[in-house]
Fold:
Amino acid sequence: MIYARRAWIVLWKDALAERRSKEALNALFFFTLLLLFIFQFTLGGDRERVSDALPGLLWLGFVLSGLVGLGRAFLTERDHDCWEGLLLSPGDKSAIYLGKLAGNLLLMLLVETIMLVLFGVFFKLDVGRHLPALAGVVVLGTVGFAAVGTLFAAMTAQVRARELLFPVLLLPVLVPVLLGSVKATEAVLAGEGLTAVTHWLKLLAAADAVYVAVGVLTFDAILEG
Amino acid sequence: MNRTLGWLVILGLVAGLVMGFVVAPRDAAQGNVQRIMYVHVPSVLVAYLAFAVVLIASIVYLTTRREAADRIGHASAEVGVLFTGITIASGAIWGKPTWGTWWTWDARLTSVAVLFVMYLGYLLVRGMVDDRERAARYSAVVGIVAALDVPLVHFSVYWWRTLHQPPTMLKPGPSTMPGVFAATLLVNLAALALVYVFLVMKRVRLLRREEEALA
Structure:
């Protein structure tokens, strides 16, 4: 109970700070908008080509905004000298990890919702028709993404070349999540439903479980500084 | 001890070459190109062994904080990346005449490539974190994440469908490989495993000396 409360306090603190500064969300909203521009410019106006690549583009967008958004998860702690505060907080440190993960998940899901709407507007992605299945796939993929992302963000926060090391570490590890998410999204958008891709969904669920478990178990070693 | 192992390595490599080039007959279908398999398959198996050692060393380091475990993990990762590189390179050289292409996004090629970049990342953490103790902790976490990712990568990439021939040795049921080929493969596997042990021991010692020099 106290454990859950600790995680909740970390989440609440981050959410409050974000609500007051709106730093991450504003920048990320703008970033996703720019991404759509880039996709459009690089792929040209060919409607067919864009709609074929849509599931991939969607997850490319999620990953790119995730690299920007998750990478800064522990920067407030570092910049405002609160790292010691986290270290000194009593009890199991993995509660801090889960709180941070929940915050990151919230942020990512918000950004992804915005991006889905933008994809609907600009690329004629029929979000409404596939909504429940699509939401399930997005959540399943994002949990794994955010779980490793949060762990590696804590790790790279203290490193000189953070901007470089974070994506370089994260992207290879995310290959299974990315493959599963894109394949499942493809099936959903093609109207095949989730039953055609249960093996991918199981893989995503397994990845989520593995990443969260590793994060909980190893976060202590990273927080030490 | 070290010297004896060194001689054993040389002996093993020579025996492997003799087996591969003299004893084993020319493959009926693929010709001489098939002999690359005697390097290719043992290399990938040794690489997997190396990464398993990294996983164990990482867990041991995080629980006991013994520097010896960290050094073994570090050394094993370096040698593992080396053998993964050899696997990819020898596979490409074999693939060009056999499949007609250096590289294809086949399932097992892709998963080995992902493995390669994951452990390059592990070594990158080592290089980029200045504080020694912190580098050890961080890379241990990466070593655990990467190793647990291997089965996920394997399955996800496998479901893409594959061009690679299915495994001949590590599959259920009796092996269909003729005896000479299997024997040659085993000799080379033993030789490369010895090379692995030798290099890791050398590297561990070098790492310890480096630290002593800095201390």
Observations:
- Chain B has six helices and no strands.
